[in-house]
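no rush on this but wanted to send it before i forget. what follows is a protein written twice so to speak, once as letters and once as structure tokens for the fold. mainly i need to know what kind of three dimensional shape the backbone takes. thanks a lot i owe you, the record is right below.
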Amino acid sequence: MDGSTRIQELIGEPRGYDARIVGRAKLKCRSDIALLDWDVRGYRGDRTCLEEPEEHGGIARVHTDNLSVEEFYQKFEIPGVPLCIDGIVQQWPAWTNWSLKSLHRRYRHVKFRVGDDDDGYAVRIKMKYFLRYMMSQTDDSPLYIFDSRFIKLDGSRILIGDYEVPKYFREDLFHLMGEHRRPPYRWFLVGPKRSGSGVHIDPLGTSAWNALISGRKRWILFPPNVPKKIVKAKNLKRIGEDDEPVDYFTNILPRLKRSMGDTLDYIEFVQYPGETVFIPGGWWHAVLNLDDTIAVTQNFVSSNNFRNCWYQTRKGRRGMARKWYRELKRSHPHLAKVADEMNRIHGYDMEKERERHHEDYRRQVFARRVKVGVDKYRRRLNGVDMEKSSSSSGDATDSDWTSLSENFDGLNSDEENQVGMAIRQVLVHPPQQQMDQYTPAQNGTTDNHVRDESYRTEDPPAAHGVSELG
């Protein structure tokens, strides 16, 4: 009897209601795919997609006993060189506590995130349903537990006590903003074979580490100087192929290697149980789970990668950058001076950006209020004779405006006109016509600027909405 059979006996066979629960989760995570089409490409029967590749690029591999923190800084973090470290994970309680058997016993009734729905809300299912799904799934790109809130949920907080941040990555300057203000930065991962993360760069210039408890992960890394157009290889994708990691590694990546030949600069390797991978900020990377895997990953900002992180945060999260700067002045004044010098060189005025940020945020809130109001009105028109509605003057009635007024309190006259135009769009066109791209106009022009929301309460994943950061 092999190990997987024993695990299957411990967690039980899938039951009838398992399919309904998992099916609902699939439809929420990927509303564009019918349930019967999750295995349409037949990767389950294609063993080549799970084969170990020939290692390329020479990933540095070292045991933690032979690497000091200072050596790590000088040889790897400062020059931005990826690294695979052995001997860290074996010292954690997670090395024994995070087996599939143990996870089922300790957390079977706890709900974990397996993706996001179309509105960006987390989709969660209980661990017991997910493990039974994982042991029996035949999907091309399966659901993937990728949970950043595991330490905040009842029943799963104990997970945080099963590991500690390795000594090489303990400086994290984003902690100055506090747990509630800083972006999500740590994730608990349970990935079935063929799941993974599409090619990406970790947000805000952060570096990352990924510690593997069980299974194997296939990695592809591209240096920061490799253009996005080459890395994404959109021109090599064929009709019917998705953006899922299994498609990228099995089909698109081999074409990219053939088309670029020796000119393609990349590192490819397999991460084994007990190994911790360090990904420097700015490096493109993608991951494919060759087995059912369990891992933990975190993103961090240290003094050594502060410059890039400050530039990216200042550009993408202006409000957060201002708070971070205030905290840096109090606790790390030498880094605040670095930020000041960068701002001076780039001609970046934080006070002017603050005013612009507030205006952009007000416009964004206004656009959302318009969308909510229009959606309410569209639902109200469902089932109504549209010819009769559109044969009127095209203006909303007094009762229509009354029912929507709670969405538009405090708008000025120009903004009310914008709302009126949006409502008339609904009257003229069928309710199913979407208004998602509507944004308010200022001074007769349309401003399509939307605040960066790469970080929400939980970041969306790359596989069916899941992004493996690190």
Notes: The chain has 15 helices and 15 strands. Residues 322 and 351 are 9 Å apart (CA to CA).
